[in-house]
Amino acid sequence: MLVAVVRALVLLLVLVLPGPRSARQLGPQFADTFSVLDHERLDVYRLALEFCALALRIAGQLPRGHAQLADQLRRAATSIPLNIAEGVGKVGAGDRAHCHRIARGEAMESGAALDIIRLLGVAPAEELDAGKSLLVRIVSMLTRMTR
Q: What is the DSSP secondary structure assignment for residue 41, as one 8-state letter?
């Protein structure tokens, strides 16, 4: 019990204080406690992954004859979390903002793809609404991150 409490406190300190950011940097005794990259701590990254999963599901449900649209949605949706992660890994503020602007553009493109899918009537409206809701939040967060 005491060991679990100590590990939880160390985890909390690592997340709050500057310094080592991975279990490997803290030592082998914490290797099974956590291992998180910086971008995985961002709410926008987690929302982008959630949207990506939804977009991949929608793209997989599109009927024959819509392969190009499905591919476009897949590529745009997967680019959002990838560019967020890349941006977090950049050292300069300008480089970070550039990656986040690209992610924002991909989110906007994904929204347009959902609009086209809605016009075609080939996916459930509830899923499209959920995707649009996630994208609104993602775009809002990324807009603030690019300033």
A: G
pLDDT digits (tens, 9 = 90+) for 49-64: 999 999 999 999 999 9
CATH code, domain carrying 73: 1.20.1440.60
- Global pTM reads 0.77
Q: What are phi and psi of 56, to 5 degrees?
A: -65, -35
Nearest CA-CA partner of 58 in 138, 130, 1: 130
Would you call 78 exposed, middle or buried from its count of C-beta atoms within 10 A (0-12, 13-18, 19+)?
middle
User: CA angle 70-74-76, nearest 5°?
Assistant: 115
Domain range enclosing 30: 2-36
Using CB atoms within 10 Å of the CB of residue 55, give its burial: 0 to 12 exposed, 13 to 18 middle, 19+ buried: buried
